[in-house]
Amino acid sequence: MIDIKLAVSDPDRLKKALESRGLQTAIVDEMATLDQKRKKLVQESDELKRLRNEQSKQVGLLKSKGEDASELMAKTKQMGERIAAIDQELDQIKSELDSIALTVPNIPEEDVPYGKSDAENIHVKTVGQPRVFEFEPKGHWDLGDTLDVLDNTRAAKLSGARFNVFKGKLAALQRALISYMIDMHTKEHGFKEIFAPVLVLDKTCLGTGQLPKFAQDMYKIEGEDMYLISTNEITLVNMHQGEILKASDLPIRYTGFALCFRKEAGAAGRDTRGLIRVHQFEKVEMVTFCKPEESSKELQHLIDSAGAVLEGLGLPYRLSLMCTGDMSGFSAAKSYDLEVWMPSYNAYVEVSSCSNCTDFQARRAQIRFKEGQGEGTKFVHTLNGSGLAIGRTMAAIMENYQEKDGRIRVPDALRNYLGFEFIDGSNK
RNA sequence: GGAGAGGUGGCUGAGCGGUUGAAAGCGCCUGACUCGAAAUCAGGUAAGUGGGCAAUCCCUGCUUCGGGGGUUCGAAUCCCCCCCUCUCCGCCA
User: Could you give the CA distance from residue A93 to residue A44 in angstroms, rounded to a whole number?
Assistant: First the structure.
């Protein structure tokens, strides 16, 4: 959540920010008006409460002396009724204000390029060279089908479209990738491994910004206020929901594997084949909590950590800074995408998005820190990045490491995890 | 799923209708003592949100004792609903 005070103190900045993300700005003035109204009512209510408290004490005092207090009691009761009326109005304004504020995305950082579409993203660097094939490379769905390691037909039988069944050595590759990534992040990048539930309460999704605005992307459990997570950023960030952290414990870095579920509503007809766009996918996520002044540095650390996985696997990729209009993360103030080279697309495909959410999620989820005795509490900055999306990484390995005979060579880094050199139709 | 017990400040734990934002102990911070430390002594030590002020100093109002609602002039304390934890039983991978 953005700081509502901004709507009053610096409405132009907020309007500009919303505009840059392609949104309407009228709500800024609306918020300012409501907030002013709220403030006035709070003052009125507080003053009446002060009087009531005072008079109630008087009643107690009179009674303890055995004197008559009935007149004062009647007066105070009336006051209570007025307070109740004001507080009711106040509650209504607060919920109005909240329902607006919760749908406002984060404000882009100063150095995020202004732009309307992905065409205006800045390509920061490319790492590695796309392989030149001496034969026509196949798509990973074809490779998987031929080797009988990726079974789309059986998956459809079980769960419908956009699901997959991994078989044999491809299933093993998935396990290896999870271990490889998490081991790297814990041993080399300073993250602590976390395994958390994939089924969470609705208020948890509110904290990271998936709800209320993106309910249509998430699977809800019928009859309960629970959702299947769309990313494990939700669980990792909300681990500290409502907490006041010690400054000396920061930065806190978490990594973890989880299944993620997305409806992919509105993506009908796009990327229908293979592992690129599915309803259930596996992801290793990274999340960082830090002091505000450290978040730029920590964002770079996320990018480097995600990049290290791609480099370790020998996959060529591109790093891009998202422009204001293409920043997909509702909670993000600045985002970089890492895109892996996908021969079948003849293009780079996103495998990781690393974002600095500044204090946006922290404000929603009430995650704060305290510098020391007597110092006030401040909101932490939260950051998240995939490290990486497993399915898309598998697709990239299959395509980039395919041999002319259709087998897939295993990247050197995974040999120790797998114990075989090629993914083929065999089981061992 | 059934039965019982319980949820109070960083922690342990009192309070069970009025001056208690909350005893006591522990922890932590500051000061005194000390060459320094320990021990001892004195003081301080929750969060949120308003107002005053040039002020991140300070003064001050309101709210918060798992969450929500109710009773009352007044609720941590009484009543109702919900959530969570623990113990026992049942079920189960």
Answer: 14
Q: What's the complex ipTM? A: 0.87
The predicted structure's pLDDT at residue A259: 95
Backbone angles phi, psi at A371, to 5 degrees: -70, -50
Instruction: List all nucleotides in chain B with at least one atom under 7 A from a protein Cβ.
Output: 18-19, 28-29, 44-45, 47-51, 61-63, 72-74
Active site residue A262: yes
Task: Say what the pLDDT of residue A372 is.
Answer: 67
What structural domains and CATH numbers belong to chain A? 5-101 (1.10.287.40), 118-423 (3.30.930.10)
Q: Nearest nt to A76, CA vs C1'?
A: B73
Cβ atoms of A173 and A423 closer than 8 Å: yes
Residue with tokens 């995600």: A306
Per-residue pLDDT reduced to its tens digit, A68-114: 888 889 999 999 999 999 999 998 998 888 889 888 999 999 999 99
Calculated CA dihedral for residues A206, A210, A214, A220, nearest 10 degrees: -80
